[in-house]
């Protein structure tokens, strides 16, 4: 039943020109997903933020400095060739994380995880976080916890799930309505709905009627220069992070500014000029 | 001279060869050892199979007895009380508010159980702290809608003929894990006669493989 | 037969073998591993029926509509309310974190009184009796004007009830903390006459000239502004941002014009000069110019020649000229005053000068322009019953025009002219410049009452704390404030029963009035706050309760607007940052750090960059070009005339050389370990400077020195 219908491929595109860096996506995510907090959260290496907002600058001196903010959820990589061998999934010895071929979403099962943190080492995007301590809420505050997401315990890894519980709930709603189609509006992540600037668009990359598909225009064919890369955007303003690794993230970014798009990967001298006309350009159109 | 000293003299001087077969004393020792072995084996074996399962569970009586037969006669089916909400989520064990659709703090029948219900819960506006036999741990996401609506299964397929029960059985809770015995497995032998005898992950997966050809991805049943 | 060692060996082996072939080992291993994944102390949130309830957020002047997701009545998530006229589904991080404020460790759980510098729980009856006892004493002494009151904002029925109480009691000393709205009201009053405010139609404007207004950094109604900015590119509207630091707003603007801190007013005057010289002002609208327009014109030409302005502000004459002309030639230009969030220490001269640009282009009361609108008057308070004593007291000269001025006056006096101070929803002991002086003034006031949900710095300096509910636990009308074009009134409704022994602030005022008796009690004829609000709201009560909000005015106000130039024609001084050191320290309004009431939530603090706060260390921003021997990330000593602190240095190319920036709103000392003791309160480094024309504190920045620590 899972395999006999066309699989979804949920993903998002984030407009970095619209993002204000306000941090609402991050807090909406924490509130939605029962993410705990500690007394000191300024050591960002152990500060659990499924959605983290990075600040990027063009590095130029005053007054030519420019700044953009880049929200970074789990990229839900499809792995090389988009076959589901995400960097983290491939290394997990406990099968505590797997690739959902029906949705393209990379799971994380806390009770199955035994905390070896291989996945964290494997993730090129630092999207995974380890619970060094048991979560503790101030007295009474655990009353706001949501039953839809299981609170984590000490010693396990956690990460963004694209609010999978919202997909679960949307499917239940669809079932009682006598369908198993989940409408675009019924499954939206907490960061998407919260963003006051409307910078995040979420939906099924495989569904041409979804807005995210229309913006990203994912190329169904492998990149001729790098067959590991699948689903490259045919929108010249859209790029992915470290796209050339072939991790095939399902989170796309969008900017009109070239220096921002160039921040999506590490380029050697002169390399960007060579690739910019292929990556994130009109070459496929 | 004590036994131990005796042994030390012989054993230590003669080495390994002097030991076992030739010494008649040792024979009786072995014989006794075998008996001890058998006795201990039997005690441990039997308590492992018979006593241990009993000790592993704490047993709880429900707050009061619930007669499903009576209620099904009145309401007609399972869904009158255990229904899917409009948003597709499952209502589970009814809350007091649902009961009050019919009940008041005046008992309708003559059973002691209903009197307890009326006096202790309805009158005091307290939720009944039912023990839920089929409660899965927090990491499990289970969609009733997917099974009853999409797959068209009925309640009995997994829960058994609960509608035919007149009494509420004891709730058994695993002392270590806190799981209900209905989840962990009724039979210590691991024999599963009915779907409702055990509902661990492999039981879910087995049926999923049979019915859908795939056991499903983690997030299908986890949260 | 003897029982020997081997017998025991047999026993042991038998036992082990027996257990080994029983299920004990396998089951215990399984159970043990399950146990380690289900620690009993890991909370299991109870499941239940989902419901959604709508309300209005009251955490900041934004007043956004929210929905609260509940599980069996238990709130678990706050989200934006679709189609609400302020925020249309949008929401900000503080609103989402609203549930944390319900259970905040600094909540005051029961009324408290201070005994020997420690707080002791008391009953509501005792607390109210203590306060009324003090108030009755003032009445007996025929000295009602010795009661002063500070509220966080001026609008809505609850601040209205405090005002009403003060009027009935007979004291003119009811003051509001300096928020954007109060500056806008002051500006509108100065230029267009009393009881008016300004609203900016940035949604439709095609050219926004912002003098430091942090449109995506929390200015005005933050979510509404962010939404307007998100739609700006599609509308092809231009945003020019003028400020010393590349704020997020500047980073997203079409053009960032760095300006020397504290010279924004001069720049605006210079631009006025360009418009006047080039004859680019609207002659039709100019017919409404009264009060010294000619004098103003002459003064501007004389005092603000382009080259002089260029030198003072650090913006090239060419830039000033071109920007002013582009602004004037746009179809729907709007100039925005109010640096950062537009609250705290600002300057009336700057607000007036910037708004004069709007007046000159005549884009007033038109789509995409500035609305000069009357203050919302949807509440009909009855006239207070005033006896002779109250009349005499109310007629007394107010002690001060602003909270800062009042605090300075008390601090300088031998015996405080204020004997009883009531503070509601405000934290002057943290949010005003030089809070130590505010605290010293508090010390001199014999009796302070704090009406607050939180044990904040001001509550800690008070004698009695009356704990009130948060916005999620009570009903209250929430008028939109702060520069929105439309005036919307929302109704916050209780989403959850009060978590602690708290009351609605409206009920507290009504109870106090009732206990006082006499004219004050007669002025409060309501049973309780809900009854009161119903009567005050009158006709709009029904739509308010049915729809959750009422749009009081949406379109541009009709009628002509008069503009009085006499304030600016006198060319009041531009207040320069005090001191003579090398650098200028300016506050940074960061969206993630609220700087007034309430203090940041744990979630908000969690999002703060480690280049703002690391451990308990505070970072300051400095341009590497002017950093001399300082090292990025290194420690330094920052010194201003008001004090000296140890900070860490963050090199930021996006701040003008010669300027040091520090995020405002950190360095709390309240009773919440997730928020307290982190960083430095920049207010402690800035001495207030009262602006002569407004009586308000206008010290936005201060001169500072920095050296390697």
Short description:
The complex is a heterotrimer of chains A (285), B (223) and C (709). Chain B has 223 residues and is mainly alpha-helical.
Task: Describe this entry's structure for a reader.
The complex is a heterotrimer of chains A (285), B (223) and C (709). Chain A is α+β, with helices and mostly antiparallel strands. Helices cover 19% and strands 12% of the residues of chain A. A four-stranded mixed beta sheet of chain A has the order 6-1-8-7. Chain A starts with 9 loop residues before the first strand and ends in a 10-residue tail after the last helix. Chain B is built from ten helices and two strands, in the order ααβαααααβααα. With 223 residues, chain B is mainly alpha-helical. The mean pLDDT of chain C is 94. Chain C has a seven-stranded mixed beta sheet, with helices on one face. In chain C, 34% of the residues lie in helices and 19% in strands. In chain C, strand 16 (447-452), helix 21 (457-460) and strand 17 (464-467) form a beta-alpha-beta unit. By secondary structure, chain C is an alpha/beta fold. Chains in contact: A-B, A-C, B-C. At the A-C interface, helix 1, strand 2, strand 3 and helix 5 of A face strand 3, helix 4, helix 8, helix 10 and helix 27 of C.
β-strand amount of chain B:
under 5%
Number of strands of chain A: 8
Total DSSP E strands of chain B = 2
Which blocks of ≥5 consecutive residues of chain A have pLDDT under 50?
280-285
Helix content of chain B: 40-55%
Overall form of chain B: globular
> Number of helical runs of chain A?
8
Count every helix of chain B, treating DSSP H or I runs of 4 or more residues as helices. 10
Q: Helical amount among residues of chain A, as a percent range? A: 10-25%
- Pattern of helices and strands of chain A: EHEEHHEEHHEHEEHH
Radius of gyration of chain B: 28 Å
The average pLDDT score of chain B comes to 85
N- to C-terminal distance of chain A: 36 Å
List the helices and strands of chain B in order. HHEHHHHHEHHH
> Based on CA inertia axes, which overall geometry of chain A fits?
globular
Largest interface: A-C, 64 and 75 residues
Enter the CATH topology name of chain A: Alpha-Beta Plaits
Q: Radius of gyration of chain A, Cα only, in angstroms?
A: 19 Å
Sheet with most strands of chain A: 4 strands, mixed
Structural class of chain B: mainly alpha
- Please identify the oligomeric state: heterotrimer
């Amino acid at each position: 039943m899972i395999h006999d219908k066309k699989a979804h491929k949920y993903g998002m595109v984030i407009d970095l020109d619209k993002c204000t860096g306000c941090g609402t996506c991050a807090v909406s995510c924490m509130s939605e997903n029962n993410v705990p907090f500690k007394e000191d959260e300024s050591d960002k290496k152990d500060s659990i933020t499924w959605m983290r907002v990075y600040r990027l600058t063009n590095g130029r001196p005053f007054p030519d400095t420019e700044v953009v903010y880049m929200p970074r959820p789990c990229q839900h990589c499809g792995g090389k060739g988009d076959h589901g061998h995400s960097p983290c999934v491939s290394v997990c010895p406990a099968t505590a994380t797997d690739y959902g071929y029906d949705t393209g979403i990379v799971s994380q099962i806390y009770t199955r995880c035994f905390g070896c943190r291989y996945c964290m080492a494997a993730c090129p995007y630092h999207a995974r976080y380890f619970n060094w301590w048991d979560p503790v809420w101030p007295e009474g505050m655990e009353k706001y916890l949501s039953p839809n997401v299981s609170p984590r315990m000490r010693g396990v890894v956690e990460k963004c799930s694209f609010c999978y519980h919202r997909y679960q709930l949307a499917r239940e709603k669809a079932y009682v309505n006598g369908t198993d189609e989940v409408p675009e509006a019924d499954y939206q992540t907490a960061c998407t709905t919260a963003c006051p600037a409307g910078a995040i668009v979420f939906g099924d990359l495989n569904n041409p009627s979804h807005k995210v598909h229309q913006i990203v225009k994912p190329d169904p064919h492998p990149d001729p220069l790098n067959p590991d890369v699948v689903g490259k955007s045919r929108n010249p303003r859209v790029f992915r992070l470290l796209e050339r690794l072939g991790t095939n993230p399902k989170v796309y970014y969008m900017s009109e500014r070239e220096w921002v798009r160039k921040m999506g990967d590490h380029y050697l001298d002169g390399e960007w000029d060579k690739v910019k006309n292929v990556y994130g350009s009109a070459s496929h159109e | 001279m004590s036994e131990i000293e005796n042994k030390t003299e012989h054993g230590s001087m003669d080495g390994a060869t002097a030991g076992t077969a030739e010494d008649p004393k040792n024979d009786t020792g072995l014989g006794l050892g075998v008996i001890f072995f058998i006795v201990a084996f039997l005690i441990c074996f039997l308590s492992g199979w018979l006593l241990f399962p009993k000790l592993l569970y704490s047993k709880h009586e429900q707050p009061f007895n619930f007669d499903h037969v009576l209620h099904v006669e009145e309401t007609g089916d399972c869904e009158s009380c255990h229904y899917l909400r409009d948003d597709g989520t499952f209502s589970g064990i009814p809350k007091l508010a649902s009961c009050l659709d019919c009940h008041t703090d005046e008992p309708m029948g003559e059973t002691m159980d209903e009197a307890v219900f009326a006096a202790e819960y309805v009158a005091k506006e307290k939720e009944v702290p039912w023990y839920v036999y089929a409660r899965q741990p927090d990491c499990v996401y289970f969609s009733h809608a997917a099974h009853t609506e999409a797959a068209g299964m009925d309640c009995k397929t997994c829960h058994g003929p609960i509608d035919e029960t007149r009494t509420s059985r004891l709730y058994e809770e695993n002392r270590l894990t806190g799981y209900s015995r209905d989840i962990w497995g009724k039979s210590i032998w691991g024999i599963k006669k009915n779907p409702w005898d055990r509902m661990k992950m492999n039981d879910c997966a087995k049926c999923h493989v049979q019915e859908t050809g795939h056991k499903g991805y983690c997030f299908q049943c986890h949260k | 037969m003897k029982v020997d060692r081997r017998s025991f060996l047999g026993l042991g082996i038998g036992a082990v073998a027996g257990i080994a072939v029983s299920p004990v080992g396998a089951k215990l291993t399984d159970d043990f591993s399950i146990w380690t994944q289900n620690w009993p102390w890991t909370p299991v949130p109870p499941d239940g029926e989902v419901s959604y309830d709508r309300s209005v957020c009251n955490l900041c002047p934004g007043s956004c509509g929210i929905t609260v997701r509940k599980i069996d009545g238990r709130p678990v998530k706050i989200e934006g309310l679709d189609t609400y006229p302020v925020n249309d589904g949008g929401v900000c991080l503080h609103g989402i974190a609203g549930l944390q404020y319900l259970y905040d460790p600094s909540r005051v759980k029961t009324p408290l009184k201070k005994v020997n510098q420690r707080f002791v729980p008391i009953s509501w009856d005792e607390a109210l009796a203590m306060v009324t006892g003090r108030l009755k004493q003032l009445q007996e002494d025929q000295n009602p004007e010795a009661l002063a009151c500070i509220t966080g904002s001026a609008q809505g029925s609850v601040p209205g009830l405090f005002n009403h109480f003060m009027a009935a009691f007979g004291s003119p000393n009811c003051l509001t903390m300096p928020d954007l709205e109060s500056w806008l009201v002051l500006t509108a009053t100065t230029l267009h006459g009393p009881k008016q405010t300004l609203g900016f139609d940035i949604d439709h404007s095609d050219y926004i000239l912002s003098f430091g207004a942090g449109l995506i950094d929390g200015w005005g109604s933050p979510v509404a502004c962010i939404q307007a900015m998100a739609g700006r590119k599609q509308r092809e509207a231009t945003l020019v941002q003028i400020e010393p630091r590349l704020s997020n707003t500047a980073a997203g603007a079409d053009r960032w014009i760095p300006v020397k801190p504290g010279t924004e007013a001069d720049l605006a005057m210079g631009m006025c000069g360009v418009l006047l010289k080039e004859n680019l002002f609207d002659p039709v609208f100019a017919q409404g110019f009264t009060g010294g327009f000619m004098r103003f014109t002459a003064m501007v030409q004389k005092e603000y020649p382009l080259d002089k302005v260029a030198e003072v502000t650090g913006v090239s004459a060419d830039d000033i000229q071109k920007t002013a002309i582009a602004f004037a030639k746009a179809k729907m230009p709007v100039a925005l005053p109010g640096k950062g969030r537009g609250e705290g220490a600002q300057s009336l001269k700057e607000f007036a000068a910037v708004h004069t640009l709007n007046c000159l282009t005549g884009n007033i009361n038109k789509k995409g322009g500035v609305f000069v609108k009357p203050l919302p008057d949807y509440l009909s308070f009855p006239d207070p019953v005033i006896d002779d004593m109250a009349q005499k007291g109310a007629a007394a000269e107010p002690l001060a025009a602003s909270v800062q001025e009042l605090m300075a006056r008390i601090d300088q006096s031998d015996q405080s002219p204020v004997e009883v101070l009531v503070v509601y929803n405000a934290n002057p002991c943290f949010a005003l410049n030089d809070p130590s002086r505010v605290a010293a003034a508090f010390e001199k006031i014999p009796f302070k009452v704090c009406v607050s949900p939180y044990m904040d710095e001001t509550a800690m300096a008070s004698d009695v704390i009356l704990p009130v509910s948060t916005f999620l636990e009570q009903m209250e009308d929430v008028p939109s404030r702060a520069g929105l074009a439309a005036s919307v009134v929302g109704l916050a409704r209780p989403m959850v029963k009060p978590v602690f022994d708290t009351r609605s602030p409206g009920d507290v005022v009504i109870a106090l009035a009732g206990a006082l008796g006499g004219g004050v009690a007669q002025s409060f004829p309501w049973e309780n706050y809900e009854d009161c609000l119903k009567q005050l709201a009158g006709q709009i009560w029904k739509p308010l309760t049915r729809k959750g909000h009422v749009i009081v005015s949406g379109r541009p106000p009709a009628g002509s607007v008069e503009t009085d130039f006499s304030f600016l024609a006198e060319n009041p001084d531009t207040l320069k940052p005090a001191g003579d050191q090398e650098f200028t320290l300016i506050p940074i309004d960061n969206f993630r750090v609220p700087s007034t009431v309430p203090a940041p939530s744990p979630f908000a603090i969690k999002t703060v960059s480690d280049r703002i706060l690391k451990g308990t260390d505070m970072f300051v921003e400095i341009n590497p070009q002017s950093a001399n021997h300082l090292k990025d990330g290194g420690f330094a000593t920052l010194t201003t005339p008001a004090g000296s602190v140890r900070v860490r240095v963050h090199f930021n190319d996006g701040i003008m050389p010669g300027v040091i920036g520090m995020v405002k709103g950190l360095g709390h000392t309240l009773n919440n370990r997730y928020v307290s003791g982190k960083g430095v309160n920049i207010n402690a480094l800035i001495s207030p400077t009262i602006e002569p024309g407004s009586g308000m504190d206008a010290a936005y920045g201060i001169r500072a020195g920095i050296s390697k620590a």
